[in-house]
Amino acid sequence: MGRISILPTSVVDQIAAGEIVERPASVVKELVENALDAGATALRVELEDGGRSLIRVSDDGIGMDRDDAVLSVDRHATSKIRIAPDLIGVATYGFRGEALASIASVSRFELETAPEGGDGLPAVGTRIVVRGGTLETVEEVARTHGTTVTVRKLFSNVPARRKFLRSARSETRAAVEALTVLALARLDVAFTLTSQNRTLVDVPRVSSAAERLAALFGRKAAEELVPVDHSSGYISVRGFVQRPADARVSGRKAYLFVNGRPFRNPFLIRAAEAGYRATIAPGLRPTILLAIGVPADRVDVNVHPAKLEVRFRDKMLVERAVEEAVRAGLRPLEAAAVVGGAVGWSGGHAVSYQSGPPDRLTGRPPADLALPDTLLDTASVAAQQHPAVGGELLQLFNTYIVFETPDGLALVDQHSAHERVLYERAMAQLRGEGSAAQRLLLPMTVDLGIEELEAVEEHGDLLAAIGFEIESFGGRSIVVHAVPNPHPRFDARHCLEEVVADVAGGRFGGLANRLERFAATYACRAAIKAGHVLEAVEMRDLLNRLFACELPPHDVHGRPTIVQLPKDELERRFGRS
Fold first, then answer.
1. What values do phi and psi take at 377, rounded to 5?
2. CATH number for the domain including 275?
3. Do 37 and 167 share a domain, yes or no?
């Protein structure tokens, strides 16, 4: 019939280019990855008109001789793999052998390269020119070792693709982002990007990720991050996450790496956000930079033409490890909000994607720490001191507790702190670990509205779990026989009325889990309030309870329980630094 035919090579190349070269940023990514695989220690990217007119990537890598240079622009030409089993555990950024051929098929392409010369002599360089996928020129040039690839008039022979490119500014931003991701992955390489002769990225080689973060995003943004270092079986998760107090609705950054390779995975981002559960308000999106380490045979990197995605053999285990890692990173005092500057950020707590694990942060007390049931029980207070809480305690404005830390001062909001304590206790009770209830000598009668009565009926099991023993009294009244006893100033009637009203009105509807919504409601209403005068023993007891929590620096509304005032900031304010 003659209806089926083999596509011309030029069409095949343009189809392949469509899978790999989406926009100028895609070209930057592929060329920079090739340079990194070639052992480059310094990379320079130049753009004009957002990359539509010019993209030039220069490196000081090992370079190529004439034969390899000519082969490099053929499809499926690669030095990274030889046989199919090599695809298992491939460690290089590029390996499919399609990038240069695809780019050359949709642009005016030039490649200059030279290997290192022997006996100190300069090697002979090679210059290759390709127009629309057709090799036009191969000639010798004099140059130092390394490679320079110049791409002009991207998509000039594919006008349908060119018209879908965005403005020069948008394309430039995308190229900067592509380079930023790789700069985060390779701390041992210096990166520079210029556009219209203006330098947009200029980062030197560094020894820690903290230095690279500060160079790329600014020191203020970097100081909002706290380190993560967690292992679960064969999975390691390291990197940085943003303090909950600094999370915002927009403008967040999310970067994932596996075995040093950047990739995208919305499910892992969601798992990381789950680690923030009950620490940030709904809608806030924290910045996340996580490097995942797994054995090479447990991740498949050959599932996307542009290598933007990977497939894990044990997807659920990796997601669980990421959530646990983020949650563990938010536990220490260092994750609390900071006034003026970061505590210990620039030194021993910096984590590198390539070096060993970071210094351990100040941890919380052991999980089996025994604590008194009320703020006035002093029997175990002296014996159970958290290492971060030393010296005298001071209550300010009958609302904040102040104490000295090794790095400065810490200020604790007594209501938020007690709210965190009660929330985690309530969650334990709601999961069936028992409740602390106090029987009333005289039952308490409470009148409620219709919606509140319905809420009591719907959530009666949860109210009972936290200590409220309730029965119907007819009409719109209920009788309360037992109540919780979270602290000596607890107003059971007022708390019950507020909890029922909040639950009926869906005030905490932003929390996804029903138990979390209820526990947060109860903790907010039952906690001691601002304005309550606390004795020294009560303050210390509250702090020890707080630091025994899973996430002491954060309350359930997305506000900090603790604010740090670094010693360096004090000295700066007083002119001592």
1. -80, 110
2. 3.30.230.10
3. yes
Q: Map residue 199 onto helix, strand or coil.
A: strand
User: Is pLDDT above 70 for 203?
Assistant: yes
In three-state secondary structure terms, 44 is strand
pTM for the model: 0.81
Amino acid at 11: V
Query: For all residues of the chain together, what is the average pLDDT?
Result: 84
Secondary structure in 3-state letters for 117-136: CHHHCCCCEEEEEEECCEEE
Q: In Å, how far are 473, 519, 546 from 465, measured between CA atoms?
A: 20, 10, 22
Spatial strand order in the sheet of 469-474? 437-447, 477-484, 469-474
Query: Are 546 and 560 in contact, with CB atoms under 8 Å apart?
Result: no
CA 476 from chain centre, in angstroms, equals 49
Give the span between the Cα atoms of 97 and 16, in whole angstroms: 11
- pLDDT tens digits, 407-461: 889 999 999 999 999 999 999 888 887 666 888 988 999 999 888 999 898 888 8
Using one digit for the tens of pLDDT, what is the confidence trace for 44-56?
999 999 999 999 9
- Asked whether residue 485 is assigned to any structural domain, the reply reads yes
HSE-CB at 490 with a 13 A cutoff on CA atoms is 24
Range of the domain at 246: 209-338
Cα–Cα distance measured from residue 135 to residue 282, given in angstroms and rounded to the nearest whole number:
56
- CA atoms of 394 and 396, how far apart (whole Å): 6
